[in-house]
Design goal:
- With 194 residues, the protein is an alpha/beta fold.
- Helix content is 42%, strand content 16%.
- It is built from nine helices and seven strands; from the N terminus they run αβααβααβββαβαβαα.
- It has a five-stranded parallel sheet, sandwiched between helices. A two-stranded antiparallel ribbon has the order 4-5.
- A hairpin with a 5-residue loop joins strand 4 and strand 5.
- Helix 1 packs parallel to helix 7 and helix 3 (49-59) runs parallel beside helix 5 (80-87).
- The protein is globular, with a radius of gyration of 16 Å.
- The termini are far apart.
Amino acid sequence: MIDQRDLMAVLQEHRGDAVVLPVERANVVWPGISTMPQRDLAESVMGKGSSLGLGVALARPETKVIVLDGDGSLLMNLGALTTIAEMQPANLYHFVLENGIYATTGGQPIPAQGRVSFTGVAREAGYAAVYDFDDLEQLAVGLEEVLQASGPVLVCVKTVPNPRAPEERSQEMARPRRSPSETMADLLREFGRG
């Protein structure tokens, strides 16, 4: 299993100028690792990260879009995999941080934990490529291949469960954040439209 901070540190090294969309629990860690916050779409979109990522990928086909999704979040919108496969965005890289729990809401086990293969579902839906990682060294070596593959790509990464404690939520809510309008203004400037 991989600690999500380690995963994100390796991903930051390889992201290039990709737009990164961290969903829920990933959104707690990613802002402290990202060196390009103006290219991060860090909004609370529980269950809808893959759909938002698809929209950005279709709107900006020349830009790589990386979604950092949770397994619990993806289960809330599992049908999005078929929509993504149908649209075939070559620039979408959908990472699923598979920890077996709803980390954002306190660590409850997700349904069918250990019995559902997210890469299997994505492959059968029609994703162009799928990858599984449970070792940081293998991920670090394989990430270049992953990000060179034509999408849509689903990457399932077995991560250490890290549920949010109640007091952590209060601390996170007090942390300064960009407003949704600031986030969009930053992205529009990045894309030359601001």
